[in-house]
Amino acid sequence: MDAAPAWAEHVPAWMSGNRMLELQGLTRQFGTTLAVDHVNLEVPDGQMVGIIGRSGAGKSTLLRLINRLEAPSSGRILSGGRDVTALDGRALRDWRRDCAMVFQQFNLVQRLDVLTNVLIGRLAYQRGWRSFMVLVGARFTAAERAMALAALDRFGLADTALQRAETLSGGQQQRVAICRALMQQPRLILADEPIASLDPRNAQVVMDALRDVNRQDGLTVLVNLHHLDTAREYCDRIVAMQAGKVVFDGTPAALTAERVRAIYGISEEEFAAEAAARLRADAAPARLAMA
Amino acid sequence: MTTAEIAAWRARMPAAFGSSGRTRALRIAGWLAFALWLGWALQHFGFTPQRLWNGLSGLATILRLMVPPSPGELWVDILQGLAESVAMAFLGTFVAAVIAVPLGFLGAGNVMTNLLFRFSLRRVFDGFRGIDQLIWALAFVRAVGLGPLAGVLAIATADIAVLAKLNAEAIENAERRQQEGVTAAGGSRLARLRFGVLPQVLPVMLAQALYFFESNTRSAAILGVVGAGGIGLQISERIRVRHWDEVAFIILLMVVTVAAIDFLSARLRRRLTGGG
């Protein structure tokens, strides 16, 4: 990674405010359960934050709330002082562009080629006639295509650009998803269990990629993880959740084994094993149901 | 096993020792009623062994007349009629498939959230599906006159509703995660459909259209009988003048054509829906 890509220089005005994200009493209720329960959180610009917690702790819902894939039941989401809780239409799409999501199951369109999947990250930039051309014939500009290829090249995937996404391995697909996220030229990356479906080697490649966009491109990264060691290794700050609430917020060094036992009542190893088993169980039937 | 033990088990779980007298009686009565109805229906439709026998010998005569099949003198007409049938089936299916794409989206629950509109549209689909191609053909022959145009319109009208319903189901079954990827990147509702749904369902839609083309080449033959163009007219004319050898020739030609189209379309469909 010698030269940062051209778009890394693009630093919009809103970045001057150093509070990238501020959550105020953010709450999401499903039926009678509070998936996210009055979460208050401030994330400064450029931080890499790891969010940990057992299954059902509300980590995933929290990220989905920030991207507005879920609507909050109450509370506010502020970004650079601007309230993004009630945006809709064009403004909502622009906000989603600004906070790119990376999903556990990659969420690439399997039958589209890799290049088009990456170009989906440019959808929110299309205006007027261009957005019509893109909708009808996927006619992205040459500049956008070159930009997508450069992003793929950065993660060693330029040669796969014309293959269908479904032909790629999980690790490759997740890197494509990160390229799509970068194409959005976001201020923030929200990664929801990005390595839970990957083997250890690919998990490291993907985490390195996330750290790289955090360090090189200066993007703020919020990443949900079920592995405490990974969170400690990669993140500047760790937020632990339990039953929808933030129960720990501090540096990796402060999250000692005793602290983990105090918060969750189980050892770190049990914590990791439980989370891994639950994720596997979640992923398998979901795929069947979709088939 | 002593008799006492057997009796004890029988008392505890009587159903394990065969059904009770009452169930058996009901079952016998049911079968009897069905047999009576069957007998009555057969008698009502004149299903007598004698008529069957006469019919069979009539059929044998026809079969004898069919051998050897002969193209007759008007074999150019036959080939033209056959080509016309295939063309009718293709055009009719094509028109139906094109119209059924937007209708499918409108009928899909994850696209059209207005329940009343969707419900009404689905009922209209159901209504159209209840009317057979042949009825449409008869109507269009009166409306636009004899010839292949009536056939094309009949095929298209009969298939639009079915294809639209199948398309709507395919759209509803599209995987949610892939659509979410587009939405999360800031894509609009239309962008979600174009990039998140269409790539998933287009191969399914094409495969369905091909399947309908297959079955329509078969049924396009019959449309000619009511004057809606195609090979059917040639067949019915030759049956009227009892040129069974030529009828046999046409039938053989049709079987070969349909088999060829089936083969090609099945291969194409496998390529479309298989992962490759």
From TrEMBL, chain A:
Coiled coil: none annotated. The keyword ATP-binding applies. It comes from the Bacteria. The keyword Transmembrane helix does not apply. PROSITE patterns: ABC_TRANSPORTER_1, ABC_TRANSPORTER_2. Residues 21-268 form the ABC transporter domain. InterPro entries: AAA+_ATPase, ABC_transporter-like_ATP-bd, ABC_transporter-like_CS, ABC_transpr_PhnC, MetN_ABC_transporter-like, P-loop_NTPase. Keywords: ATP-binding, Cell membrane, Membrane, Nucleotide-binding, Translocase, Transport. It holds the Pfam family ABC_tran. One of its GO terms (molecular function) is ATP binding. This is Phosphonate ABC transporter ATP-binding protein. It comes from Paeniroseomonas aquatica. The gene is phnC.
UniProtKB/TrEMBL annotation, chain B:
The chain crosses the membrane at residues 28-47, 86-113, 134-156, 195-213, 220-236, 248-266. It is a multi-pass membrane protein. Residues 82-265 form the ABC transmembrane type-1 domain. Keywords: Membrane, Transmembrane, Transmembrane helix, Transport. It comes from Paeniroseomonas aquatica. The keyword 4Fe-4S does not apply. Gene3D superfamilies: MetI-like. NCBIfam families: PhnE. The gene is phnE. This is Phosphonate ABC transporter, permease protein PhnE. It holds the Pfam family BPD_transp_1. Its main location: membrane.
